[in-house]
Amino acid sequence: MKKVKRTALFAGLAVILCLIFFLIGRSSGGEGNTEMSAVVLENRLTEISELATITYSYTNMAEFENSRDFYGVKLPFTTKSFIITYDGEINAGVDLSKAEVSVRGTRVNITLPEAEILSHQIDEDSIEVFDETTSIFNPLKVEDYQAFNKDQKKKMEEKAESKGLLTEAKAKAISSITEMLSQILSDEYTLNIE
Length: 194
Fold this sequence. Notes:
The chain is an alpha+beta fold.
């Protein structure tokens, strides 16, 4: 058993050393000076793919109410309702696989797509339902919760966007890419990101 563990340990160390030497050789660029090309930069950006730049966390409280009506008149004893609170998180950023890169001489131009909402999660453990009312003539169904959840997600995304979430995400993406590429590009290159 000890021999197997020792052999596995040596094999793991050998693989790690090979990987380190490979990465060192790759980063040194081999012989001579390698000229920066648009393809190299696009590959670097595509490796990151989605740059999730901003996380918007929130707590929301909302009310659902529904009752049957007859030609615009609410029917008695058909009201169903609930009040719900929950926590959520919206991640917004830029999909770097859609970035356009061009290199002209020593000028590098990168055009980023508009920022978008990359994910929106509601913490299931944070959901609390208050004041739930149901009716025998109009009972609460799972579909009521699902439709309400979908509607609330859309409202929270609109609220986050109205507070400048996407504008801030794009600005943060530009800042992050500038910082990342300044480590790759030599001082002779001028970087323009928009």
